[in-house]
């Protein structure tokens, strides 16, 4: 029989995955999605408990979680837009002014690997002779 | 306390999904080193299989091969897999879509948990509204494709270690709380002793020679083991729902007292003096009591006692296993507007304030002319 | 209509309201150019009230008080201890001495405020000027009217503050700021003495209140039971008076205080505030009569200061500085008169001091105001070497200055003549006493010499400014306006007539003043004109005038010759006897040395403190990188510890 602890396990896994996402990802939107993922895990717990205890309070809790998440989403997205307008980027590491005075800004030291060159796409010539290979325009 | 008082050893089935899952997530997180995704996917699949194994065997229940079990595993697997994809994806738009699938899978789980209204609400609000808004924001802000921030992670090693240590702790805790196997075996054992024609000689202490009548009689090894098993099982059901001193009149407290008395009786006299009748009575008491307590904890039995509180005496309503009402929507509505009226008003206010706040924040500031 | 008691309260209260209104006007942009109006109106009303109070005093013998019933007395602050009750009350009281002072202060104050309208026009901080002047009038009136010494001290400090603010009115000018600081600090020396003296008196008397009447109740008893402390307290009060009235050795601030606007010099540093010391000593006559030694000290200080300041004034080129030194000198005369109060009859000596104070207020005010008018016309140049022959371009100023100069020089029939004559008479009378008689005679001689010098330097300034060929500094545009001329005319008439009108033939002034409670009980002298003295002092004054006329109008070439023939003496006078330099060596440099040592010690202590403080800072440096501003890092540390905690719980807690 699928019982309470199974659901709690799935909820815990979702919560921890959301937590890791929140801690590691630097895109504000992905961070926020991770927070929502944690909320999903918690909501799953509540609903499972609701089933186990045979009353509806757990489901009501889950409903409130949805309401709060909706508020959060509205405010957070508005803030993201504002922050984006200021720095033209959603990288949260750009907002680190609240550090100890005199401390160096944390920067990314390791360079990103070079993008592998994409295979140039063949361009068909007009008359059906062998297609000439031309670099794709990236602009 | 709950975790500490359990005498279960660590269940090593926890380790496989945790370690493999940690490796897989760490491997797949964005990094400046280029990693082939295949290995990540492989380790991830192993972790998923480990998780399934943990679910099947971790709690001692047997999983029947029903549609429900199939759906549960399907939805859970989808949810976990896409959650992993969501947190590891380089493209925020894909992350958002993965999250949509996670939400849909959780909705399936909600449905399995007899919460159809919540399922519908979650689909409408989350998958329908919130994620669409996210996609809009992504379209507004990231028109140039993934930025360099999306290709890096902040402290992936520490974060993964912390997260999966936490997960391991949670799983072990769950296991300790919901694994009833040693209680079940203790009940079977006690019942067997009680039902037997005669008590096995191994349990009975050999009578001392006449000249040493006054000296203490030791218990046999088998008897010690039996009593230890009983005591462990008793502790297990006791800690699962600790009681305060105020509700001593409740059944479960009385049952615990009875079982303790029976164990003490066995220890002090019955096994030593070869009192077969007493042994069988006490074992019967232990088996009955443990069964009842286990069912109470499980939720498959109900309290019949009168609950005293400052509001007066309350009798629990209804016997038999707890069940949710069939008319889910109307029942939720009744609960919301009776038990949680203030909370729902507050939530409404919160939504209103959030709307105003969102508009105020995102308003473009007019340049001072 | 207000009754006398309420009018008494109105006298200091109205200028205070005026000051507040001026400040409010100054804060509102549209009203800023009208901010002189409240000051003028309140000064006028205050003057009217003062005249009304004095008119009622003329008939009465008892002082007018506020509150007029003892039960209504207002407690300002108080401390009840087991052994003593320190209770300071708010009470005003105008006796005949206070009434006379009040009349002078409010009347002259009003006309000077009117003069300031023209003089200060267009200056930045117009409203600030009138607010502070109004506040000054309020403080001065409070000083005069207070019936206890602590309230008097409040007024005393109030006028000191206003003096500081007004001397430093052009605070962006370095010299003005320095002068203001100097004035404030030097007078502070005297003020410390004064408050110590007051507290000593309080300690010696009933230890209940600070009213004058309590202090004066049993003076002989005090003097006999405290043979050391009582003279000491009197000396401390004299120190306060010396500081405020710019007597030797604390006179050095007054010439520098001329950095302030000229009407301020006229009001504060000639007519009113600097005479507060004389007023205080006159008020304390009952105390001083018990200690003849202190009286003699006062007289010596006064005479010496008079001579010293007159000597310095002989050669100064700055018109306002000449007037400043002459002020110091004239206040020296007043001190001399007060100091004679023991050996001579108090009704002669104190009346002479206050009479001289009264006439001096008029003629010195008119002198300062006309010098201000000259300065206004000469584009802020006041050096007498830069201009001459101004009598044609500034006719009203010329006549006013002439009136003031005649009065100051003590030319017969002008007001200064009569009052100075009274001072000399008091000194002469003191010379006839048994004790210290010789010393007082010497002082009389000094005073007569000073009178000669006064006549000389006064007319030296007059002739150099208004006679000779017409010369003006570049940029000057001589003009006179009615708002400045009117006060000049009124005060000039006062300077000419006030002496002859109130005293020598009518004896109204001395009769009025003698009704003051502390004088009423002393014996009354018979009024007579001491003809030898009158003739002698007239001759001395005319001689000074004649010498000045000869040297500066008839044959100007003799000036240089005379200066060269007394070369060293001349340079002493020109450099103010090097008093500032001596003070610098005696006080400033040791203080600088002490300050250097202190700052060295301070540096050691603060470095030690810094050393202690650097320990936690050093510890902090090691954990500082944790505060790196990355939100995710903070969240990570939180999660790490939660995970570690729960993990430990699972692993080890059985």
Layout of strands and helices, then pairs:
The complex is a heterotrimer of chains A (139), B (369) and C (654).
Chain A: H1 4-24, H2 28-53, H3 57-87, E1 122-123, E2 132-133
Antiparallel strand pairs in A: 1-2
Helix pairs in contact in A: 1-2, 2-3
Chain B: H1 15-28, H2 37-57, H3 67-88, H4 92-112, H5 116-141, H6 156-178, H7 181-195, H8 221-240, H9 251-273, H10 276-298, E1 307-309, E2 312-314, H11 328-338, H12 341-362
Antiparallel strand pairs in B: 1-2
Helix pairs in contact in B: 1-2, 1-6, 3-4, 4-5, 7-8, 7-10, 8-9, 8-10, 9-10
Chain C: H1 4-27, H2 36-59, E1 64-66, E2 74-80, E3 85-90, E4 92-94, H3 96-119, H4 126-145, H5 149-167, H6 174-204, H7 212-216, H8 219-225, H9 229-244, H10 253-256, H11 262-271, H12 276-283, H13 285-288, H14 292-313, H15 319-339, H16 346-377, H17 395-409, H18 415-431, H19 437-466, H20 482-502, H21 508-514, H22 517-520, H23 531-554, H24 557-565, H25 567-574, H26 579-623, H27 631-652
Antiparallel strand pairs in C: 1-4, 2-3
Helix pairs in contact in C: 1-2, 1-4, 2-3, 2-4, 3-4, 3-11, 3-16, 3-20, 4-5, 5-6, 5-11, 6-9, 9-12, 11-16, 14-15, 14-19, 15-16, 15-18, 15-19, 16-17, 16-18, 16-20, 16-21, 17-19, 17-20, 18-19, 18-20, 18-23, 19-23
Main features:
heterotrimer, A: 139 residues, mainly alpha, Helix Hairpins, two-stranded antiparallel sheet, 2 strands, C: mainly alpha, 27 helices, 4 strands
- Count of DSSP strands of chain A: 2
Largest sheet of chain C: 2 strands, antiparallel
Number of strands of chain C: 4
CA-based gyration radius of chain C: 30 Å
| Largest binding interface between chains | A-B, 77 and 103 residues
Distance between the termini of chain A: 58 Å
CA gyration radius of chain A, whole angstroms: 24 Å
Please name the CATH architecture of the domain at 4-94 in chain A: Orthogonal Bundle
CATH topology value of the domain at 4-94 in chain A = Helix Hairpins
The helix-and-strand class of chain A reads mainly alpha
Distance between the termini of chain C: 96 Å
Strand content of chain A: under 5%
Q: Looking across the biggest beta sheet of chain A, what order are the strands in?
A: 1-2
Shape type of chain A: extended
Main sheet makeup of chain A: 2 strands, antiparallel
Q: Structural class per helix/strand content of chain C?
A: mainly alpha
Spell the H/E element sequence of chain A: HHHEE
- CATH top level class name of the domain at 4-94 in chain A: Mainly Alpha
User: Which spans of chain A have pLDDT < 50 for at least 5 consecutive residues?
Assistant: none
Low-pLDDT regions of chain C = none
């Amino acid at each position: 029989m699928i019982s309470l602890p199974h659901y709690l396990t799935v909820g815990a896994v979702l919560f921890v995955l959301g937590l890791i996402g929140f801690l590691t990802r630097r895109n504000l939107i992905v961070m926020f999605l991770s927070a929502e993922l944690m909320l999903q895990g918690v909501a799953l717990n509540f609903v499972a408990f609701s089933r186990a205890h045979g009353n509806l309070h757990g489901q009501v809790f889950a409903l409130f979680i949805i309401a709060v998440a909706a508020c959060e989403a509205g405010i957070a997205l508005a803030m993201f837009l504002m922050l984006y307008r200021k720095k033209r980027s959603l990288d949260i590491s750009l907002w680190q002014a609240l550090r100890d005075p005199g401390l160096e800004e944390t920067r990314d030291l390791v360079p990103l690997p070079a993008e592998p060159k994409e295979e140039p796409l063949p361009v068909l010539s007009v008359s059906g002779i062998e297609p000439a290979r031309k670099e794709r325009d990236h602009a | 306390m709950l975790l500490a008082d359990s005498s279960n050893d660590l269940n090593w089935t926890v380790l496989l999904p945790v370690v493999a899952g940690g490796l897989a997530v760490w491997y797949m997180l964005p990094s400046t080193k280029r990693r082939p995704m295949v290995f990540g996917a492989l380790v991830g699949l192993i972790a998923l299989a480990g998780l399934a194994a943990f679910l099947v065997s971790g709690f001692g229940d047997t999983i029947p091969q029903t549609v429900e079990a199939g759906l549960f595993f399907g939805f859970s697997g989808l949810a976990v897999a896409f959650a992993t994809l969501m947190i590891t994806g380089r493209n925020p738009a894909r992350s958002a879509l993965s999250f949509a699938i996670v939400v849909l899978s959780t909705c399936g789980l909600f449905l399995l948990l007899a919460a159809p209204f919540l399922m519908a609400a979650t689909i409408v609000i989350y998958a329908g509204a919130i994620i669409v808004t996210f996609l809009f924001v992504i379209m507004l802000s990231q028109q140039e494709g993934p930025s360099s921030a999306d290709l890096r992670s902040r402290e992936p090693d520490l974060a993964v270690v912390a997260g999966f240590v936490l997960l391991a702790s949670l799983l072990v805790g769950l296991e300790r709380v919901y694994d009833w196997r040693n209680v079940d075996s203790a009940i079977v054992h006690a019942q067997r002793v009680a039902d037997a024609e005669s008590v096995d000689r191994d349990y009975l202490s050999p009578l001392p020679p006449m000249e040493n009548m006054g000296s203490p009689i030791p218990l046999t090894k088998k008897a010690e083991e039996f009593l230890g098993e009983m005591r462990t099982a008793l502790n297990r059901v006791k800690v699962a729902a600790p009681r305060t001193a105020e509700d001593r009149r409740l059944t479960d407290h009385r049952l615990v007292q009875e079982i303790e008395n029976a164990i003490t009786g066995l220890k002090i006299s019955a096994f030593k003096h070869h009192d077969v009748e007493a042994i069988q009575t006490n074992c019967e008491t232990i088996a009955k009591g443990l069964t009842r307590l286990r069912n109470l904890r499980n939720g498959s039995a109900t309290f019949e006692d009168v609950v005293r509180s400052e509001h007066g005496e309350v009798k629990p309503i209804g016997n038999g296993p707890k069940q949710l009402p069939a008319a889910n929507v109307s029942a939720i509505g009744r609960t919301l507007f009776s038990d949680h009226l203030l909370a729902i008003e507050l939530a409404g206010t919160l939504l209103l304030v959030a709307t105003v706040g969102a508009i105020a924040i995102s308003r473009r500031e007019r340049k001072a002319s | 209509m207000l009754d006398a008691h309420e009018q008494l309260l109105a006298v200091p209260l109205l200028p205070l309201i005026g000051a507040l209104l001026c400040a409010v006007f100054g804060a509102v942009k549209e009203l800023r150019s009208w901010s002189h109006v409240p000051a003028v109106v309140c000064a006028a009303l205050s003057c009217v009230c003062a005249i009304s109070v004095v008119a009622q005093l003329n008939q009465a013998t008892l002082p007018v008080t506020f509150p007029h019933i003892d039960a209504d007395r207002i407690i300002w602050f108080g401390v009840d201890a087991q052994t003593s009750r320190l209770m300071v009350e708010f009470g005003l009281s105008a006796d005949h001495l206070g009434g006379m002072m009040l009349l002078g202060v409010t009347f002259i104050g009003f006309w000077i405020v009117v003069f300031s309208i023209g003089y200060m026009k267009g200056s930045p901080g117009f409203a600030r000027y009138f607010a502070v002047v109004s506040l000054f009038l309020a403080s001065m009136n409070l000083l005069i009217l207070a019936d206890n010494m602590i309230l008097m001290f409040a007024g005393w400090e109030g006028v000191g503050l206003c003096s500081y603010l007004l001397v430093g009115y052009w605070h962006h000018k370095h010299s003005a700021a320095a002068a203001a600081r100097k004035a404030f600090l030097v007078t502070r020396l005297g003020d410390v003495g004064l408050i110590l003296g007051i507290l000593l008196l309080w300690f010696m008397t009933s230890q209940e209140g600070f009213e004058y009447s309590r202090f004066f109740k049993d003076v002989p008893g005090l003097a006999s039971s405290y043979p050391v402390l009582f003279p000491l307290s009197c000396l401390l009060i004299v120190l306060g008076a010396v500081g405020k009235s710019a007597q030797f050795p604390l006179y050095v601030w007054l010439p520098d205080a001329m950095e302030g606007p000229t009407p301020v010099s006229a009001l504060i540093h000639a007519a009113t505030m600097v005479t507060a010391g004389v007023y205080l000593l006159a008020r304390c006559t009952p105390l001083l009569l018990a200690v003849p030694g202190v009286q003699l000290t006062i007289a010596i200080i006064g005479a010496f200061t008079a001579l010293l300041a007159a000597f310095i004034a002989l050669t100064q080129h700055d018109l306002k500085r000449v007037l400043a030194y002459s002020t110091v000198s004239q206040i020296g005369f007043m001190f001399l008169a007060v100091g004679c109060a023991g050996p001579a009859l108090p009704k002669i000596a104190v009346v002479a001091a206050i009479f001289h104070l009264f006439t001096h207020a008029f003629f010195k005010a008119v002198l300062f105001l006309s010098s201000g008018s000259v300065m206004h016309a000469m584009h802020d140049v006041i050096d007498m070497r830069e201009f001459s022959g101004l009598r044609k371009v500034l006719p009203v100023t010329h006549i006013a200055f002439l009136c003031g100069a005649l009065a100051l020089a003590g030319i017969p029939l002008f007001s200064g003549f009569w009052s100075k004559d009274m001072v000399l008479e008091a000194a002469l009378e003191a010379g006839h006493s048994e004790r210290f008689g010789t010393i007082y005679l010497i002082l009389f001689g000094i005073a007569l010499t000073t009178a000669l010098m006064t006549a000389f330097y006064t007319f030296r300034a007059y002739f150099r400014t208004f006679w000779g060929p017409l010369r003006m500094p570049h940029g000057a545009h001589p003009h006179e306006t009615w708002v400045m001329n009117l006060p000049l005319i009124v005060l000039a008439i006062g300077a000419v007539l006030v002496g002859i009108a109130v005293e020598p033939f009518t004896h109204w002034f001395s009769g009025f003043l003698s009704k003051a409670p502390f004088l009423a009980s002393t014996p009354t002298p018979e009024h007579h004109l001491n003809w030898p003295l009158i003739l002698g002092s007239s001759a001395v004054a005319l001689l000074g005038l004649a010498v000045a006329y000869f040297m500066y109008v008839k044959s100007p070439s003799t000036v240089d010759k005379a200066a060269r023939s007394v070369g060293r003496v001349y340079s002493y006078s020109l450099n103010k006897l090097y008093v500032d330099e001596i003070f610098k060596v005696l006080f400033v440099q040791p203080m600088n040395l002490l300050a250097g040592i202190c700052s060295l010690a301070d540096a050691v202590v603060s470095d030690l403190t810094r050393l202690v403080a650097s320990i936690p800072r050093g510890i902090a440096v090691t954990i500082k990188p944790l505060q790196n501003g990355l939100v995710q890092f903070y969240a990570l540390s939180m999660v790490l510890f939660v995970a570690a905690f729960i993990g430990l719980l699972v692993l080890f807690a059985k």
